[in-house]
Amino acid sequence: MTAMRWWRRPEIVCQQWVEMVTDYLEGALPPKLQQAADRHLADCPHCREYLAQVRRTIATAANLRDEDVPDDVVDALMRAFADFRGAGEA
User: Fold this and answer.
1) Which residue from 1, 13, 43, 53 has the fewest beta carbons nearer than 10 Å?
2) What pTM was computed for the model?
3) What ranges do the domains of the chain cover?
4) Cα(21)–Cα(2) distance, integer angstroms
């Protein structure tokens, strides 16, 4: 299956939901995919909990100040992000 072709199917599975949660929260899904995501959420307590966790994480992160995060943690996160981006370019 090629990238982004799965969204044309009428139903989605949990892995697909996890991959689209950011677009879901931003209201950036095409209407048919939005409907499929909503149907999946209605039937899947695990994905509803995942969505709640993501929302809690966003709310918590929004309240952080620079001084709340130790420099070593910032450095570790920046290295992890750089490693992740580098792995995606390979």
Assistant:
1) 1
2) 0.67
3) 9-89
4) 20
Q: How far is CA 48 from CA 19, 26, 60, 62, 70, in A?
A: 14, 16, 18, 21, 32
What span, in angstroms and rounded, lies between the C-alpha atoms of 58 and 34? 21
Supply angle C-alpha 48, 57, 51, rounded to 5: 10
3-state secondary structure 3-66: CCCHHHCCCCCHHHHHHHHHHHHHCCCCHHHHHHHHHHHHHCHHHHHHHHHHHHHHHHHHCCCH
